[in-house]
Amino acid sequence: MRIDILTILPDLLTGPFSDSIMKRAQEKGHLEVHIHNIRDYSTHRQKSVDDYQYGGGAGMVMSIQPISAVIEKLKAERAYDEIIFMTPDGEVLEQAICNELSLKGTIMILCGHYKGVDERIREHYITREISIGSYVLSGGELGAAVLVDSIVRLIPGVLNDETSALTDSFQDNLLSPPVYTRPPEFNGWKVPEVLLSGDFGKIEKWREDRALERTESRRPDLLE
């Protein structure tokens, strides 16, 4: 998978992709991440990327020219399955969206700032708008990092245990059951006996029951 991220703050994105699973995904050849500084495409003398909004009002707007320039350059080099804009008013990111996007080959992500981007960018270039929650961040970079992480971990070969992602919370509209590891007893706190029994039928049933209980208690909306 190739992911191109368009931003005015590229340094914010170096950390998330230079360690852990994202780093290994790139080393294994499963992922390419290319970060593009939108300022490099501005024709303004000071490389400005924002301007006052028409009609007045507080807050600046990201200009159409530099964003269009970088998108057009990248589109001339390859076709993109999705061009995504990270925005608070987009569809809220859920596991089903991650599953769908993990099957794509090329994705472009635009990170917004200020009061947003010139609406014509959204009308003529963007194929999908995604939010990571009902709140506002200073920019789209952290949201883009969350989105990429949630997608890439689903690509076969990225995780050491490929079945791990299939048993995550939300994959079947249930939260994950409790998990335990050694020692079997600590400070008098014991691991449930069924998990030590070796009876995988009973263990699976226990996990299903606990997942349902946890979902009913914490996220009943998932069961509606």
Globally, the shape reads elongated
Question: Which structural class should the secondary elements be placed in?
Answer: alpha/beta
Low-confidence parts: none
SSE ordering: EHEEEHEHEHEHEEH
| Count of distinct strands | 9
Question: How many domains comprise the coordinates?
Answer: 2
Amino- and carboxy-terminal Cα gap: 34 Å
Care to describe what's here?
It is a single chain. By secondary structure, the protein is of the alpha/beta class. It folds into two domains: 2-152, SPOUT methyltransferase, trefoil knot domain (Alpha/beta knot, 3-Layer(aba) Sandwich); 169-223, Trp Operon Repressor, Chain A. Helices cover 29% and strands 19% of the residues. It contains six helices and nine strands. It has helices at residues 20-27, 64-77, 95-101, 119-124, 141-152, 200-218, and strands at 2-7, 32-37, 50-52, 60-62, 82-92, 106-111, 128-131, 185-186, 189-190. It has a five-stranded parallel sheet. A two-stranded antiparallel sheet has the order 3-4. Strands 8-9 form a two-stranded antiparallel ribbon. The two termini are 34 Å apart.
Task: List the main descriptive attributes of the protein structure presented here.
224 residues; alpha/beta; Alpha/beta knot; Trp Operon Repressor, Chain A; five-stranded parallel sheet
Q: What does the secondary structure layout of this molecule look like, with pairings?
A:
Blueprint (H helix, E strand, L loop, with lengths): L1 E6 L12 H8 L4 E6 L12 E3 L7 E3 L1 H14 L4 E11 L2 H7 L4 E6 L7 H6 L3 E4 L9 H12 L32 E2 L2 E2 L9 H19 L6
Parallel strand pairs: 1-2, 1-6, 5-6, 5-7
Antiparallel strand pairs: 3-4, 8-9
